[in-house]
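HUMAN: I'm a chemist; might I ask for a sequence paired with its structure tokens?

ASSISTANT:
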Amino acid sequence: MSQFTNEDEALLQSMLRQLLQSVKEKITGAPSVECAEEILLHLEETDENFHNYEFVKYLRQYINDALGSVIEEESEKCTSTQNQSEVSGYDTLVQHVTKKTRESKQYREMMHALKNVMMVVVESLINKFEEDRMCNKELDSKTKKKCQSDYYTDNYSDSDSSFNQVNICVVCLTLQVRQEALQTLCLAPPSDVLNSECWPNLRKHLTMSLSDPDEIFSEKILRFYAKTFSSSPFNMTREVYTSLAQHLEFYFLSGEYSLRISSGLDVSNADINHILKKVRLLNEYQKEAPSSWIRYPEKYMEEIVESTLSLLSVKHDPNHPASSDFLSPIYFLALLDIKAIWFKKWTHAHYSRTVILRLLEKKYKSLVSISQGYFYMFLVFCFVLFVRAIPYNEQKFFYTGSELQYIYFVHSLCLLGRLLIYKQGRNLFPVQLKNKKDCVSLTDLLVLFTQLIYYSPSYSKEALTAHTDNYSPASLVMEILQVFCDQTGCATDCLYTDAVMDALLKPLQSLLNGTEVFINCLETTLIDVADILARIAAAEDGLSVLLYGGNKNSAKENSPTAVHIIVQFTKKLLHDDISLLSGSELLQVVKGAFIFVCRQMYRTCEGLQMLIPYGLHESIGEAWKKASLLSERVPTPATGADSTSSISLDSKNIVLWEETLLDALLNFSATPKGLFLLHSTGAMSDCVSFMFNSLSKKHQTNEHEEFDNGVIIAQMATTPTAAVALQSSGFIKAFVAELWALLECGKDDVRITQPKSTPVDPIDQSCQKSFLCLINLLTYPAVFELLSKQDIPNKPTYSHREVPTDIINIIDRIIILNSEAKIHSLFNYEQSHIFGLRLLNVLCCELNTLLLLETQYKVSQVLLTAQEENVTEASEGPGDFIVDSLSVERNHVLVRINLIGGPQERILPLRALDKGSDPYPWPMFSSFPLPNCYLAEVPRKADFRQGTYKACKYCRFLAELIEKFVLHLSENRSNCYFSVGRYEAIDADVKKENLSSVQQLGIEMTVRYGKHLNLLKEHAENELCFVLMNCEQFLKQQQRAVVSSLRCLQGCYAGYDWFASSVFLIMSGDGEKTLTFLQQFSHLLVSAFLWIPRLHMSMHLPITTVESGIHPVYFCCAHYIEMLLKAELPLVFSAFHVSGFTPSQICLQWITQCFWNYMDWSEICHYIATCIFLGPDYQVYMCISVFRHLQQDILKHTEAQDLQVFLKEEALHGFRVTDYLEYMESLELLYRPMLLKDMRNIRVQNT
């Protein structure tokens, strides 16, 4: 390049000219210079011949000669071994070499030389272009002579001069001159036209020319406008848009426009067709403008909005006799955009919506009034004329006045529906209508909306199937109301009022009362009403409106709330007691729709409370039994046959109806009391099978239903009947197989491209969900039904392909690993065993489960043996324990299961290693007793001043107090809820061996705990044996004989009596006093909820309740705990729902074991005393107080996705009953009447 000759310059010029000639079409077609630059910059991507151009070949060779050596040198450096860690990967290598090359001296010299050469070449090419331009200038001067004007000045640029000439010619009287000028204008780039200095004058003339009588000329102007819209930026097109809108506004206000609504509209007429073209051009731009106007100043957008609203507000003088018949611009816009898509797009973004709503409020509120006025007009049409809803996609050339009004009505309906979504739009109401004295409020408008659902005309079935777009008022209003339901603020302002609810429920009320119903299509209307009601019920505020009315404080006593009307109507539907619907093809669809509305209510505790008196579960259960009998007659499809041909439509409908009813019944199990009601229908097993089949097929849940299947499973696992149903349905087997696949096999559909990373967490993330589900599933009632009297397989050999099928196999394979065969059968031994140990740790937090596992499978001994074997080899004496993940987990479990105590009464070793020289300071052990370091120090008798533990003196005082209080209540017949016969205690010399192994182990644990607290003396075991044996005999006198397949109903109470043991400790180990107290206490209502074994198979309960195996603590107390939790601590309730866990499950665990291991002994005493002195409802308030205390921890662990583990494993640190007494008293004021009423009804609970 340093020896650049003339020949080189000529060669480069020819190469560059060839390149520009090849891309000439692409460049000249670009709308602007910037677009042309973009085309050239991306030419390599768009031109397949790019690398064949001589100029490109020349540049590539030149760069290679100048920089080839630099690139090779940098590449070698990067690929060398010493720089391998610095640069890795092809992309990174290229980036590194490119960067180093551009920073090199050779690159700078090359760019400097290339720039100098190309400047010379380009300058030569520009000179040649100048010669061509001068030729064009001579042609322009000839054109100027055709139209001379005094307005022309020589200081314009060439393009401006041309546009100025066009500006003059456009207003010339000669049509030919105007057409030629417009042709010149259309050939020029729109951006050049709009940027020229003469554009303001040209714009005025173009606006005037839009009214030109010559159709061809005005058509060309519209084409120029269209071209400008499509190829110019927003800041330029706004002027064209406002010009067109201004022209139309002037035209509609001019005297030459005389179209009337009553005359109809013939769109084939040339003049009308031309107006429609102009309005369509506006409408097309309206739809496109929002995508770009946010990038420009707000004033640009405001100009467009204001010009549009000004045009749409055009109307005749009110005093004009034909003012009401005036065919205004909005009719033409409605004809072209019937659903007001333009307005939807304009209000979508806050940026533009704010401007539109501000202008509507300040200057154009009449638009809202006019639109709303058409609702009243249309209702008159509905009642008097019954105007047909036109199929809008039908080809038409003439629209009658009625059809025009209907089209405008639809447009107004869609516009108002969009307007009401937003708070500022709702603030435009109330509005004053022309022909009404009173203002129309927002509620009035919504009542009209709902009336349109059942009073407006609708399509016939044939029309509905023939047309894809339905413009009937009912379908349009439904779309709007559905959107309202999904917007919380909008639904509150618009729908959650008594007036709107009354309007929605009017057809139901009429059908219930037997009054005449004026509805065109009753079934469709009812389905639509049910859809809106279901959406309302899905929201918390909406559910409250349905249950209690729009205003709880001013609710009308004589008018029932919506829930009562809905459930009564649903029951009548289920009993086929509505004559107008008998024989209808859509009857089952209507039934299903209203069952779904009820389901949205009864899946909540407060909703279920309102529905219980109506016995809806019984009606649904009866309907299911009838449907089940019919479905049994449906033939099974033949193998290989087409299912659509082998089963008739009626048979499919029967099966679908049965599934609908099963789904409805299944959702009763969302709450504790609902699950109890589900058992009474006899459909428990079928519902669980239906749920399992649905989950297996991965059915999608309804979009309006936010219910989680995990919650249902957690509720079911808390009751023995449902747990057995989960086992028999195959759910547990499938779940165990899926879990095993995750633990041992991994996912089959994952393509292995690199070795799987070693899990860092104790439980791998892929197994976390299954771990939590297993915790939800294995409550004590479920564990007892699934594992009681089940032996561990302990096979001599296990195959790698042998997959567990139930819970006992899981325990055998990953928890009790007591043989080499089990260890060698695992692919991921450590990961799977840690999973099992973590599961065991959570299960043993429930003390009854711990006693069962320990007595049946000797879990402690298995873990101790494993610890004993996990030691280093030593030449002398025992070796040291090997600290690894498994030994740490085993040590934690061993301490937990062998030590009873609250947060300050025992010390649990951590399951994580510390940094430093001693990573695990906790002593390990392979035999009992436990090292003393795990026992918290308890103050002795001399330390009772302000210690946490009140020990003996406190217990003696409390024992004396509750003894006298219970004796006083039991002597008064009015205070005795249960009538109990006389009982003589058996001999005090009771052998421990006469008790079950579970009771024996429970006694050992109780006595060990009592001695640790300094409450018991020697020989306390015999005293406690005496108490438990007599309690068992005493309660047995009040039990009824039950024949049941449930294991929990085949003998004495399945668990350990933790309440009797607690009273025994309070009485300082005095067996006689304990037994006397319990006998007196058994007369009181509170005994039913504090003393869990008290009502085991009790004759005081209805037989149906006994046969269910469900304790009143669950279907009564736990139910109200969930209900109050939702009202008092909504965040905590939502956290449970999100976690797929239930408050009832953890509360039942706390209550069953009297908060042992969760509270310190002093707080346990406070809990028992509070419930005895203040009433059984305080048990509910106590649990709510605990949740309030744990609120922040619950939210934190919900986010960490381990809420179940936290609540079951962690004690209640820092919780003191006395701190929450005031709060519990406030709950009592609100809820006591309701709670005590339901608690007293457990004897007659038959709903």
DSSP finds 62 helices and four strands in the chain. The first strand starts at residue 265 and ends at 266. The beta strands are 265-266, 398-399, 431-432, 439-440. The mean pLDDT is 84.
